[in-house]
Amino acid sequence: MLKKAIALALIILAIYWSFFALMPIHISDLNTKSTAFSSERALIHLKNITKKPHYVGSPEHEVVKNYLIKALNDLGLEIQVQEVYSHNKKWGSIVKPKNILARIKGHDNSKALLLLSHYDSKSHASFGASDAGSGVVTILEGIRAYLSEGKTPRNDIIILFSDAEELGLNGADIFVNQHPWAKDIGLVLNFEARGSGGPSYMLIETNGGNQNLIKGFKEANPDYPVANSLAYSIYKMLPNDTDLTYFREDGDIDGLNFAFIDDHYDYHTALDSYERLDRNTLEHQGSYLMPLLSYFSEANLNNLKSTEDSVYFNVPLFKMVSYPNSWILPMLVLAILIFCALVFYGINKRSLNAKHMAIGFLPGIGALLINGIVGYFGWKLLLAMYPHYGEILHGFPYNGHLYIWVFALFSTAVCMWLYNKVYKPENTASLAVPPLLLWLIICGVVAFKLKGASFFIIPVYFGLLSLFVLVRQKRPDIILMTFLLFPLLLIMSPFIKMFPVGLGLKTIVATTLLVSLMFSLCITVFGFSRYKNRWAFLLFFAAFGCFVAAHFQSDFNEERPKPNSLVYLYDADTDAAHWATYDKILDDWTQAYLTEDPDAFDASSINFESKYGTQLSYSKKTVIKPLKTPYVDTQKDTVIGDVRHLQVFISPQRTVNTLEFYADDTNTFLSFNINGLEIDKSTTEDQVFTYRFKNRLFSYMVTDHKSVELNFTVPAAQKTSFQIFEVSFDLLENELFRVAKRPNTMIPKPFVLNDAIIIKKTISFE
Q1: Against a cut of 0.85, is the pTM above it?
Q2: At what angle do helices 508-521 and 486-503 cross, to 10 degrees?
Q3: Do 267 and 750 meet the contact criterion of CB atoms below 8 Å apart?
Q4: Which of 328, 351, 507, 523 has the most CB atoms lying inside 10 A of its own CB?
């Protein structure tokens, strides 16, 4: 009994260790030596640059830009500010970013190392502390510490604080495609965030193989590497973009992304503040930067390209383990041969029983089916019980971590309960065979379909070793058997949390299935317990307890504020005004304008669909405010042959932030120029804006140039028209509206146009 208690304690310890080893636990303070990174020193900068939202075009954006220039100047660096118009064809954004650049000269004429993060925050309410103020101050403090050593690097070190990343990676666009330094870059280290805490994951951006990048990363030897080739493979399949996308696609420049994703509910919200940034997370970013800066500033950056990939994963004690993809099939074949040999040997030795092995498939398959169904429908059920969770567009509510506990404990309980049904004191060895066969099948599939997950074979090898011990000994030492589970628990446990945290609770099925698969290999220890039924009920009770705790944290309050939205829409074409919202459930604040009986929003003439497919839901007609509509002047209208040449000047008559241009597909544009920026078309196209999402042509972000000059050509016979939506984010400050300040229990909803005054005006050319 004592040994079983020790075994259970070791299993819990291994799971705890798998998470504990991911991040630093101590924060470097102001007394840290000058040549070392200090999170406390970095936080001084962070506090100064996150006093207010600083999205592109806001007054605070210029304040933050000037602060960063001074901070780099104080380090003795010469600064460049790059300003050029950029058009992101995919996102439809047009803006004039202001990139901040500095360069530390090396003693060798070789490729340069680029340190990258963006300094703009997401409009309009986010303070940008994590995304990506944390990256900016990590680089500032890291460079300060590096320069304190007084040595000259081999490679040039370039610092780029890019602008307009949140609008469409526009700062990265103009650097990669228009700045002469771009051709010098050998490697980019990019610091990002998609939450406000948790470990920072390393993700690779490359057009080729990752083998040399992984080799260099391991040789740099960061203390807390969190990276695996499964995340790398999934990341490459997802349509995610960071600044590194332009470096990879347009410059064929390799990069390493470092991004943390926990506390996802803070992402792009007013909660992304200095106070809520996890200090251990900032320390983790610094623990990446310093050894990588030291290593890659001296390494040969001409030799990072590779055609081969490596499988890699992090594990406590060993940090990063990797091996080439060429090993995948041999390791799989060897494991299959060992498995077959052990089964044959066990049957001959009568340690394995064919009937018991056949029965052993039932609980494993049953657990996968039950837990898979529970996980698949779990988030849908939670939304049905708590429909207000739908207002959190991230898909990860404030009590999301408790729900991960609920589903993980429930899945373990199901496994305990099912495996107890086939319990016999002598059949543990036979019960271990079906899970190993299932894991081998999974490894076979990923070897061809998802090579990055091929490290799943590592726990299988230790499972085979456990099976060998079970075949040789009917009652092996349970402590030994528990230690053989450590690779499984240390490597796989963090994935239980990673998927729902990073991708939302809609992916909680990944947790329930992974728990089922992991438990099946743990049967080599739990198979000896005759009390699995008791454990099942205890785990069911624990899961229910976590659910109750989550229920009592399911409401909105000052710590967990409700995201909501409100906009004022004035249609100058119909001379009508409406209040509108993206919310599905109205609260007291929004009902004050939309009433308790709002109308379903009519998207036939106005459709601002935002990220996650969120559309305006309700509206209410209201009084027309005396707002000045944009001034439109057609300065040229000439027909030459079959082409009509138009020059149009548009000048907002109030302070605005964006001008959105829409036109349906009956409008063909042969060419288009905005404030001197020519819209590109491919060699196979004879027109521009051939791909339009919801009829949107582009979004012009207003910065220094308040007016817009359009020069475009259309077919001469075409009746051309497009709609302008003039947007300002000053609804709550505008004295014409006197909108009440949100209560402290509410925040502006992210990812949508919010707190905005929108004027629609159609321009036609008959």
Answers
A1: yes
A2: 170
A3: yes
A4: 523
In the three-class reduction of DSSP (H, G, I as helix; E, B as strand; rest coil), residue 731 is classed as coil
Q: Measured between alpha carbons, how far is residue 730 from residues 10, 37, 727, 735 in Å?
A: 57, 40, 9, 10
Per the CB < 8 A criterion, the answer to whether 614 and 393 are in contact is yes
> What DSSP letter does each residue of 108-173 carry, written as one string?
SSSPEEEEEEE-PPPTTT---IIIIIIHHHHHHHHHHHHHHT----SS-EEEEEES-HHHHSHHHH
Mean pLDDT by 10 residues, the chain (766 residues): 88 96 95 96 98 95 97 97 93 94 93 98 94 97 96 96 96 97 97 96 91 96 96 75 92 96 95 97 98 96 92 95 96 97 94 92 96 97 97 95 98 96 86 96 95 96 96 90 96 95 94 97 90 93 98 96 96 94 96 94 74 87 94 93 94 94 92 93 83 87 88 94 94 94 96 95 90
- For residues 492 and 495, give the distance between their C-alpha atoms in angstroms, rounded to a whole number: 6
> What type of residue sits at position 455?
F
What is the H or E stretch that residue 72 is in?
Answer: helix 59-74
Q: CB–CB of 564/749 below 8 Å? A: yes
On the CB side of 155, CA atoms within 13 Å amount to 25
What stretches of 483-595 adopt beta strand conformation (E)?
562-564, 567-571, 576-581
The Cα–Cα gap between 635 and 213 comes to: 54
Separation between Cα atoms, residue 431 and residue 51, nearest integer Å? 59
Q: Compute the distance between CA of residue 312 and CA of residue 324 in angstroms, rounded to an integer.
A: 9
> What angle, rounded to 10 degrees, do the helices at 354-385 and 400-420 form?
150
pLDDT given at position 681: 85
Residue 498 parent element (H or E): helix 486-503
Q: What's the full length of the chain, in residues? A: 766
Whose structure tokens read 């005054």?
757
Local structure of residue 299 (DSSP, 8 states): S
Give just the sign of the alpha carbon dihedral 294, 299, 301, 306. negative
Q: Which two tokens stand for residue 713?
A: 């050509």
Helical residues (DSSP H) of 221-353, grouped into ranges: 229-237, 243-251, 279-296, 328-348
What lies within 8 Å, CB to CB, of 364 at 6+ separation is: 434, 435, 438, 516, 520
Integer Cα distance of 540 and 527 in angstroms: 19
Cα(462)–Cα(521) distance, rounded to whole angstroms?
10
CATH of domain 32-315: 3.40.630.10
Q: How far apart are CA 487 and CA 494, in angstroms?
A: 12
Helix (H) or strand (E) holding 383: helix 354-385
- Nearest by Cα to 230 from 319, 336, 309: 309
In the numeric block, which tokens belong to residue 219? Answer: 């040789």
Secondary-structure breakdown of the chain: helix, strand, coil percentages, each rounded to the nearest 5: 45, 20, 35
CA angle, 502 then 505 then 507, to 5°: 75
List, by residue range, all CATH 3.40.630.10 domains of the chain. 32-315
Q: Which residue has the tokens 């050319």?
A: 765
HEC letters along 16-49: HHHHHCCCCCCCCCCCCCCCCCCHHHHHHHHHHH
Q: What is the pLDDT of residue 747?
A: 97
> What confidence score (pLDDT) does residue 605 get?
65
Contact (CB, 8 A) for 37 and 290 = yes
Q: For residues 416 and 520, what is the distance between their CA atoms, to the nearest angstrom? A: 10
Q: Count CA within 13 A, CB hemisphere, residue 242.
A: 26
Beta-sheet pairing, 112-118 with 157-162: parallel
494 vs 496: CA distance, rounded Å: 5
